[in-house]
Known about the structure:
The chain has 140 residues and is mainly alpha-helical. It is 74% helix and 6% strand. It has one domain. Helix 1 (5-32) packs antiparallel against helix 2 (41-63) and helix 3 (66-89) runs antiparallel to helix 4.
Amino acid sequence: MTGDAPLIRRSSLAWGAALVLGCIALCVLIGWQPQQLRAPAWVAYAAAAAFGMAGLILLAGAAGAARLQNWLAVALVLALVLPGLWVAFGAGERTCTVSLPFLQFASDAVCRGAFGFGAALGLGILTLYVRHAIVRQPKG
Length: 140
């Protein structure tokens, strides 16, 4: 298994760099025409940041920075939770369409409820990641 370590490291570096560059490209596009968004720019930036955080986690892993990896994981979960929190609790109307083969409807309450449930789960996961980052002492 140790013979695979250089390959895994190179792969982590390549994918990490690709994700960070993808995040930068998304942020440039968001900044280029924010009026095209159906949400505030910060919501889009948070979603894009998830790609960057994932890339930075891979880069930190390749560098052997376990403590940094733990805190970047906290930032990743936060970036994933923020858009759902905005949909669930932000000002204004939200319209989601539920489409099943036998049923289709749109409802602000169903939309906010579903995203609220997901955001609550995400906040629970965020709490676990923060606890892990505080308690865990990486070796080395």
